[in-house]
Amino acid sequence: MRFAIAYREREFRLWSYVPSHSRLLLRSGRETSGTTRIDIAFGDVSAVSLPVLMDGLTVEQPDAQATHDVAARLGPRAQLDDLLILRGHGYHGYVLASLVEVDESDRPLWEPDKWGICSPG
């Protein structure tokens, strides 16, 4: 079974990346692209290659070619079992992360996420 998240008609932003805690947060606000706010959190992040703004978003497990391409960029020490491919309109990228979770809510854009990734303090 292949893992997949798809929000093709939403705009996402790379909202927060905290390398010291290995956490990444992508956000799509209800103010700009829908009736809900969608947060996608990644944990145990060891590599990221994404644009700041993403028009449409799918998150999926890689095929053999994508794995080979990322391995060529990152070298033999990369944990490619944790590779996720992210694509949208006009871009593609990747995240190496062992955890991914989605939260869809009616929270305003600037309210902190439920995982505390971009919480003050």
Tell me the helix content: 10-25%
Cα distance spanning the termini: 39 Å
Total E-strand runs? 8
Question: Taking all residues together, what is the mean pLDDT?
Answer: 90
Structural class: mainly beta
Strand-residue proportion: over 45%
Q: Tell me the number of helical segments per DSSP (H or I, 4 or more residues long).
A: 2
Order of helices and strands: EEHEEEHEEE
Report the major sheet. 8 strands, antiparallel
**Backbone CA Rg:** 14 Å
Strand arrangement across the biggest beta sheet: 4-7-6-5-1-2-3-8
Which word captures the global form? globular
Number of domains: 1
**Spans with pLDDT under 50 lasting ≥5 residues?**
none
Care to give the gist of this entry?
With 121 residues, this protein is mostly beta strands. The chain contains 2 helices and 8 strands, in the order E-E-H-E-E-E-H-E-E-E.
Please give a handful of descriptors for the protein shown.
single chain; about 120 residues; mainly beta; 8-stranded antiparallel sheet; 2 helices; about 10% helix; globular
